Amino acid sequence: MEFLADFRPTSIAPIPTTTISVDPPGGTHTHHHGGGGGGHLPLPTETFPTPDLHYIHSTHTGQTALWVIFALFTIGLIPVLFLTVRTEKRNRYFHGISALVLTIAMISYLAMSTGLGISYIPIHHHGVKGSLHHFARQLYWARYVDWLFTTPLLLLSLASLAGLSPASTLAVILSDVFMIITGLFSAVTPSRWASGERAAWGWFGISTFAFLLIWGILFINGLQAANKRPRSTKGLFTLLAAMTFILWCAYPIVFGLSEGANKISVDAEIIAYGVLDVAAKLGFTYLLLFLHTHEETGPWTLPDWWVESPEGHGPDGRGIYGSLGSRGDRD
Ligand code: RET
């Protein structure tokens, strides 16, 4: 029952009341219909207790930043698409993944720029102690949908480059999905009271554990696997994995300062995540596509059956229903 203590108001002061007035339809002035009754319509007023609710939200700066990042992803996607169609089908593995990552990021930024994927989460604002001000901070949850799809794809690129076993690759990807979902849980937990704050940071801790698991597997098993590859591939994997790890470490820090402890504005949050997203997606895919070389026996050379439509005639594939319908017995 200890958590109930959190809900008690800090002082027994009378609850402040607010008066709101609503304009009746057609306005409150009397001359607009030329004649008629001409009397004053009663102003409907209502009095009810309401704590002051303050919204912490993005401004013009943040919204412009979202559009700029959307433009960067769109412009960055075009050369990747060109490169993809110009590359031989069997060697398009990394191209395909990269194009997908950039497309998802572009769509997610378009959604956020146009006001989609946003909610308000009640938070405790540490600046105002013991007052009845309530705060709600804007949460751009669309980025978690983006991350849910793009981070596994980025990790798939890294794991494939190292030639990591399918079992370990699956473990990395599942840990990543777990990290993003528990991170979202942390972000959406209302933390107006201490119990909520504890829950939010609890989810943050669980998510961080998954984050460490991903990188543990990638560095230990990934490096073992990369040792079996040519020197240049091993070098590229080590470089990309190290850079990606450092970059990804910044995400929980930005989270802690924004969604977590509300220390920076929503605009600053948008810009910080934006810089990281551009580096982690555009920077990563461009480095990978320009630095890796194809190798016929490499683990990333796609099999023919994946990229070519199968040859041959054989049965027409309609099965029993097909043959029933083809007797020509329709009246
Ligand atoms: C959260 C919050 C909880 C703790 C941790 C997090 C990590 C997020 C990461 C995101 C990476 C995103 C990328 C996006 C696009 O390119 C969920 C912020 C550890 C690592 C790379």
From TrEMBL:
Q: Is this entry keyworded Membrane?
A: yes
Sequence segments annotated as region (Disordered) = 21-43
An example Gene Ontology molecular-function term: photoreceptor activity
Q: How does it sit in the membrane?
A: Multi-pass membrane protein
- Location in or out of the cell: Membrane
Q: Which UniProt keywords apply?
A: Chromophore, Membrane, Photoreceptor protein, Receptor, Retinal protein, Sensory transduction, Transmembrane, Transmembrane helix
Q: Which domain of life is it from?
A: Eukaryota
The family note in this entry says: Belongs to the archaeal/bacterial/fungal opsin family.
| Name of the protein this chain belongs to | Opsin 1
Q: Which organism is it from?
A: Kwoniella dejecticola CBS 10117
Upper taxonomic classification of the species?
Eukaryota, Fungi, Dikarya, Basidiomycota, Agaricomycotina
